[in-house]
Amino acid sequence: MAGSDWRQLRDERMAEPGAEEAYQAARLAFELGKAVREMREQRGWTQSQLAETAGMTQPAVARFEAGGTVPTIPVLERLARALEAKLVVQLTPGSSAA
């Protein structure tokens, strides 16, 4: 019964204006944070080490990795540079014609 209550609540919230856009922004923030965390861990770095190299604070790195913030392009560039990674931002055509 609790599962159906959750699905009903989720469906109601997702029907609200702007909910889909907010969900997609949160998903993107989470995916970016996960990618940075994985790269940091591959290097054997702590969040503090990444923060120092990127010119950020450790709490800012922690929030980013947790998906708690939608980063700006300059922040992504700093993280990419610190991780010796290439930042690629692109727009691709959608599947539906408007």
From TrEMBL:
Gene Ontology cellular component list: cytosol
Keyword field contains Protease: no
Bilayer-crossing regions: none
Keyword Nucleus: no
Database matches in SUPFAM superfamilies: lambda repressor-like DNA-binding domains
Pfam family, one: HTH_3
Domain HTH cro/C1-type as annotated: residue spans: 36-90
Sections of the chain in a coiled coil: none
GO MF, one annotated term: DNA binding
Keyword terms, alphabetized: DNA-binding
Signal peptide, first to last residue: none
Identification of the protein by name: HTH cro/C1-type domain-containing protein
